[in-house]
């Protein structure tokens, strides 16, 4: 599932970017959600521009924040499942570094 | 500043929308921040599309969430300052309704 | 309801503290919830002392955080309803100071 | 430091619980912080009982929430470092279950 470096995987993704990390489980799903998030951000901009009712704008901002949070939790889960677990399986000090990185990212999420 | 019903205020806004709420203290500032937020959302979409490193994507999502939160807190402050205080000054049951609405919006923000 | 300075109000509260703010709508309810929160904190301490399973401890910490959040949102609602609305009704610059204070408290809650 | 299975460690803990998980890196530090958190919870209870100023109570609640959050992030880091990495090293399906559990705990923290 994480073997995205094989030609088949690249074909399935329709691209050949050698720098891709390839750990994202369902990329099309994330891209669709992020497109929606972009649209929501544009919607909030329009609501402020039209000076719509503040509480309605805040409701949209909360929905947008929740949608972002949900994307972040999904990406983090993918990261733990692939990068952290893979590093642990390889052994060596890299697993510690990966866990440290993940913990720092979690702290930023919890505090944001 | 909240007297957006006067012709001068309408001219300053360059629009004549009679339903505008006009409580936003520094609209140009909010619009600029929301444009940046839209750009950040587009950036996260691109990072996922290019399969950049998950932790870097999460860092951007946290920054975006913080920026949104800050806009929300500003709008809420404007709302308390204008709508809630104005309703309280007018007397009558409307102040209670405005406080209820504000408290509900705060709860959504705190929980999102 | 906010006239806690009258003898009747003091009798009703069963105390004569002149510095009490008396804006808390249902004090007995808050005290009961905070007693439970103290018990939850003691429970988390015991779980760590007994080295119970980390995920179970985290579940308790999340429940405790949610309970605290809910108390904070209730107190904030009381504050807006009483202190902010009362200050607005009295007129003068005090309402601005109260709103500023409330907005700062909301920001701390949203960011914590 | 995590060798809590040795007789000395058990003596230091004054207990011999065979079910202890022993993954907590610096237990004494967590216990001290949780004692402080209990004291903070008791302090908030007293502030409400004495009807102290709402904003001051909210400031204490935010400090308490932050202290709890920090304990939770530490426990989570310990959990990733030990339980998740160990399960990954052992191989087999247990690592997936541990990651799922950790991701669920992270989601509860982010949303609380």
TrEMBL record, chains A, B, C, D:
Record key words, sorted: Copper
Q: Which Gene3D superfamilies match?
A: Metal-sensitive repressor, helix protomer
| Pfam family membership, one | Trns_repr_metal
Under the heading CDD domains, the entry gives: CsoR-like_DUF156
InterPro entries, alphabetized: Metal_Tscrpt_repr (IPR003735), Metal_Tscrpt_repr_sf (IPR038390)
PANTHER family associated with the record: COPPER-SENSING TRANSCRIPTIONAL REPRESSOR RICR, TRANSCRIPTIONAL REPRESSOR FRMR-RELATED
User: Which protein family is named in the record?
Assistant: Belongs to the CsoR family.
Protein's name according to its UniProt entry? Metal-sensitive transcriptional regulator
Tell me which species this is from.
Promicromonospora aerolata
């Amino acid at each position: 599932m994480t073997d995205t470096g094989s030609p088949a995987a690249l074909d399935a993704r329709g691209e050949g970017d050698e720098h891709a990390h390839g750990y994202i489980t369902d990329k099309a799903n994330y891209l669709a959600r992020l497109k929606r998030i972009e649209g929501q951000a544009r919607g909030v901009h329009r609501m402020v521009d039209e000076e719509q009712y503040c509480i309605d704008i805040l409701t949209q901002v909360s929905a947008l924040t929740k949608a972002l949070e949900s994307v972040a939790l999904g990406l983090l889960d993918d990261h733990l499942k692939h990068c952290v677990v893979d590093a642990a399986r390889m052994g060596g000090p890299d697993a510690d570094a990966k866990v440290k990185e993940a913990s720092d990212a979690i702290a930023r999420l919890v505090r944001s």
